[in-house]
Amino acid sequence: MLNSIEILLEEYFELRNCQIKSMVGYANSNYLITAGEEKFVFKTYRYDKEELGIIQAENELLLHLKKYNKHLAMRFPHPIPARNGAFILDLQLDGQRVIGRMLSFLAGEFSGNLPMTLASAQELGTFLGDMDLALESFDHPEYRARRWEWDIQHLTLIRKYVTDIPDPHRQSIVRYFIQQFEAEVMDQLPNLRRQVIHNDANEWNVLQHDDRVIGIIDFGDATYSPLINELAVALTYACYDKEDPMPWLTIIVKAYHQKIPLELIELDLLYYLVAARLCISVCNSAHARKVDPENTYATVSEDHAWFMLDRWLAIGSKQVSLHLKEALNMQLPESPDVAGQLANRNKHLSSILSVSYSAPIYMDRAAFQYMFDGYGNSYLDAYNNIPHVGHCHPHVVARASAQMAKLNTNTRYLYDQLASYAEQLLMKFPKPLSKVFFVNSGSAATDLALRLVKKHTFKQQFMVLEHGYHGNTQLGIDVSDYKFNHPKGQGQQTYVLKTALPDSFRGKYQGPESGIKYAKDAIREIQNCHGEIAGFIAEPIVGCGGQVPLAPGYLKPVYEAIRSQGGLCISDEVQTGFGRVGDHFWGFERHGVVPDLVILGKPMGNGHPIGAVVTTDEVAASFEKGVEFFSSFGGNPVSCAVGQAVLDVIEMEGLQQQAQQVGKYYQKQLHELSKTHPCIGDVRGAGLFLGVDIVQPGTKATDSALAAHIKNSLRQNFILISTDGPDDSVLKTKPPLCFNQSNVDRVVDQIDQAIKSYSI
Ligand code: PMP
Question: What contacts 486, CB < 8 A, 6 or more positions away?
Answer without folding.
Answer: none
